[in-house]
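Appendix B. Chain record.
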Amino acid sequence: MKIIITKVFVSDKSKEGKPFVDRNGKPYKKIGIQTNIHGSQWLSCLSFRDTDPVRELKEGQSADIKIEQNGQYLNFSLPTRLDLLEERIEKLESYVFSGINPPPEGTTEESLEDEINPEDLPF
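Structure tokens predicted for this chain:
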């Protein structure tokens, strides 16, 4: 989903002032954003690496994000390369199987079969 970020909040501590650490004792950050689509509702994400691209999000920036509902909360993440590839495949499949470019009128299955000579096949 394409959004524009209106607010960004990054924290490494809870409301009580305790640092966020995972079960192995490694620190992480919680990132919250508000968007032009979701208004004042916060979307959150956890970041465990300093090199995580989600830490570079800025107000006013346009971004493509994935959103998941978790109870009453919305979590977001940046799409992975696999997510982007799946999206491209879905678009291609919808185009191919939608019948947008049907065969020319008068074309039948028999006429299409006649165009392929089995002797011309390399296998």
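Further analysis of this model is presented in Appendix C.
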